[in-house]
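WARN retry 2 of 3 for item q-0093 after timeout on previous attempt; input resubmitted unchanged.
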Amino acid sequence: MTEVIQGNGRITVLTGAGISAESGIPTFRGPEGFWTIGSKDYHPQDMATFAMFCRKPEAVWEWYLYRMGLCKKARPNVGHRALASMESHLKNRFTLITQNVDNLNILAGNSLARTLQIHGNIFQVRCASALSLIHISEP
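OK item q-0093 returned
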């Protein structure tokens, strides 16, 4: 690790649902995953679409609020903290790309400037008509 820290190359890390499973956030495809369980009445793959939001906004909000509650209770684990430590040592040579919306990387100490949350953040929503960003709550 010393060679990496003292070097001048860039490090990019890509994470997915697996890193947050230890923190109690279900993966999407696992036995207890969001794509497996979803809602009582709708396929989870449908829930995460604008079309479903237009048809059944209450059901979509219920599903997202359930997920938001899980994320709000979760705490960063050793994997999240290790990535924050990497950024702390590597500074602007480090980039984290995460598919996770749970905000755990940010809570662990990764910066927003060097963390690309490619699927967004569950604590931020966009107004469908105004297309402006709304912060739901600070986790």
